[in-house]
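Sequence in, structure out. Go.
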Amino acid sequence: MSARSPEVVLVEAGGTNIGSLRYALTRLGVDAQLTADAERIRAASHVILPGVGAAGPGMRLLREAGLVEVLRGLRQPVLGVCLGMQLLFERSEESDTECLGLLPGTVHHLPERAGLRVPHMGWNRLQVLTRDPLLADLGDPAFAYFVHSYAAPLDAYTLACADHGGAFSAVVRHDNVCGMQFHPERSAAAGAQLLRNFLSL
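Output:
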């Protein structure tokens, strides 16, 4: 991270993990403010789209706030967390929801199989597939804390994957757009390192 603290905003999209995410950023020396103000989002150095819940309501809140085109037009680093990552894609199978389209592809429901718990809740190992500054100094093994029922498939933008009835994208990046399917704010040292890396982009 540079000597000057980045100006980070959390996009107000109905997420319930705001407090823990803000606290995680505070521990890194960053006072991130929650906002739905388009100009403030455009002016930030880094933008985080958090989220816990469902794709349909999440996109509805973004549309009602007039933020869909704002987010599509950002050129600074953008990070989607949990549902926020899923909203970065073109579509979600959840209620057949059209999402932001910042990343190609469709988010699918996790497989329903005997002995496989959905939603996927708990710690899971991250498998790094592509070297990237977003994953700098990530320990091996690295574990992250997941809570989700939908996930994006592996594609050209997958940096790291996890497995729950099959491999899925755990960390993605395309140009300025990044996503983490898990909760970095609940993922101990690995999560703190990943947030630190994002703030250094």
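Check: The chain has a mean pLDDT of 94. The CA atoms of residues 7 and 44 lie 5 Å apart.
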